[in-house]
Predict the 3D structure of the following.
Amino acid sequence: MSFRPVPPLTPEEREQLRPKPPPVNEFVRACRNLALHSPRLHRDGITTELDEDAFRVLVRRGDQAVHLTATSNGWATDPNYPELHLPLESTVPLERQIHAILTQSD
């Protein structure tokens, strides 16, 4: 049994062997953007909860809450707020509307 040395891997070969995370679908990405990267939804006592498996985000302030679900037609809400039925890419207008709804009683 003979041993033959193997040449070192090139940087490109090493990169190909490196494990890669599975691609994130558009619904999970939209939920993460809204729940984790929306500054207006992390001030004035507003909190968010993310459920990636159900593609849902719960936005809460005190006893008020808005459930948002990412769908192929955009955002669906519970309770129903027609002004929040926006495309998934519309994170900034959506967070502005949610902030206004939850802080309007001030």
Summary: The mean pLDDT is 92. The first strand starts at residue 47 and ends at 51.
